[in-house]
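Retro notes, item 3 of 5
We never archived the inputs for the FE2/S2 (inorganic) cluster complex last cycle. Fixing that now. Sequence and ligand:
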Amino acid sequence: MDHNEQQDTAHAPSKRKEMTRRQFLSYTLGGAGAFMAGGAILPMIRFAVDPILQKKEKGNFIKVIEETKVTNEPQEVKFKIHQVDGWYESDPKLIAWIAKGDDGKVFALSPICKHLGCTVSWSGEEAPNLYHCPCHGARYDKNGKHLKVAPKSLDEYEVKMDNGWVYLGPLEPNSRG
Ligand code: FES
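Structure as it came back at the time:
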């Protein structure tokens, strides 16, 4: 290659495609905009789904009564639980009917009638030694077994004994009636 050829090559137009100023600006601003939008939106998404992602505490037991105070005759015991449902927290009051069975073991029944959800009571003139529902007359025996109107037996709380105290856990289908 002589000297003239070298000069021609040096002045030949470049074949490389260069980015225009407009393209450069749109890429830069687009990227910065996406970054900022992500920074604003991601925390919002995280905030919205966080309670769903959090593990729910299972099997919490509540201390309700001393074991020595539980009799063969069912007694009404009121207690509070702490509930977390997404962002909503509450402390509903619950009722359990607690008694000792023929085997001497403590058990606890839900007072919610399995017909349409009214609250049952134990014994009294209208239904001696039975649970009775004031709404449509359902009857259950001491073990919560359904005798009349209601299609199922009363639910049963999970029961745990510890250090002389009775603890109640979640409700389960009745295993006694
Ligand atoms: S709700 Fe209890 S009998 Fe109907």
